[in-house]
Amino acid sequence: QERLVESGGGLVQPGGSLRLSCAASGRFGINAMGWYRQAPGKERELVARITRGGTTSYADSVKGRFTISRDNALNTVYLQMSSLKPEDTAVYYCNANVQVKPVLAVDNWGQGTQVTVSS
What we know:
Elements (H helix, E strand, L loop, with lengths): L2 E5 L2 E3 L5 E8 L3 E10 L6 E6 L5 E3 L7 E6 L4 E6 L8 E12 L2 E6 L3 E5 L2
Parallel strand pairs: 2-11
Antiparallel strand pairs: 1-3, 3-8, 4-5, 4-9, 5-6, 7-8, 9-10, 9-11
């Protein structure tokens, strides 16, 4: 399967910005990629998703503040986060839908990176 290596994340003040990166490596093709997050005591939720062709979707809570993009040549997906709010605090997970066989696609997950927004 693909190995997902995340970078970015950290502690920022409200209104600040962070850029998350996730690089996938392996021998299989990658379909959609996305970012999810999970705060303590809450369910994991989809933050943003992007297809191989570049079609994007966002959670209402981040629309207008976050931007997802990808570089297919580098097998990398990015999440540019701006105007961060304390409620954005969560562990952020990279996801990649990997076509391991012509009729089998599997979701792979990164290890997660902590984003903390606090003054």
